[in-house]
Amino acid sequence: MIELFNVKKFFGEVRAVDGLSFKILRGEVFGLLGKNGAGKTTTIKMLTLQLKPTAGEIFFEGRTIQGNEIFIKNLLGVVPQHLNFDQDLTVEENLELHGRLHHLKKSERRERIDELLKFVELEKVRKSFVRALSGGMKRRLLIIRALIHRPKILFLDEPTVALDPQVRRKIWELIKNLKARGISIVLTTHYIEEAEFLCDRAAILNRGKLVALDTIKNLCAGQSLEEKFIALTK
Known about the structure:
The chain has helices at about 40-45, 70-75, 90-100, 105-120, 135-145, 165-180, 190-200, 215-220, 225-230; strands at about 1-10, 15-25, 30-35, 55-60, 65, 75-80, 155, 185-190, 200-205, 210-215. By secondary structure, the protein is α/β, with parallel strands linked by helices. It starts with a strand and ends with a helix. Helix 3 (about 90-100) crosses helix 4 (about 105-120). The chain has a domain at about 1-80 and about 150-230: 3-Layer(aba) Sandwich (Rossmann fold), CATH 3.40.50.
């Protein structure tokens, strides 16, 4: 579904991403693991067309990024690491705004908003201002906002950062449910147990380079994923 061929991104002398080549398969949960500065967020930004690669090629469903930006953007839903809601709008108004930006018709927007709020159990706070929500509610709202236009691929950048363990588990179950609905998911995470629970395959990055790529089961063979991660990212 997504293919990277020798993708690089340099910022002056800094090689943030240095020659990544791998595939992300349809219907899988694919994890990008690495320490701070490993190149995870830069890779996500290139895959979501927020940054242009310095070199290399990226394909979505066999199409290059160049000249196919609108087609590709319609495939993608993006959940950023940092909350970026309009705090002066309600839950419902934030979703309404996003639906309008994706040119959804009024009837489709209403139906989709109702469906998504029910899906993540936020119907009771639809008229509440975003600032009044708990951290877990805001994360769920971020996710369904990215789903408003029915994307085929969902990008999650540190989806459970700063959440307590109980709320984190709820987000994990939500991600599992999204996969069951046929959505391909690409996520970055600092939590090794999160990758073990959610991912079918994971790529481990270190200083912008790919140092391991395999199924979680194979990555854990003979040692824990945490031990493998530590050994590869020294």
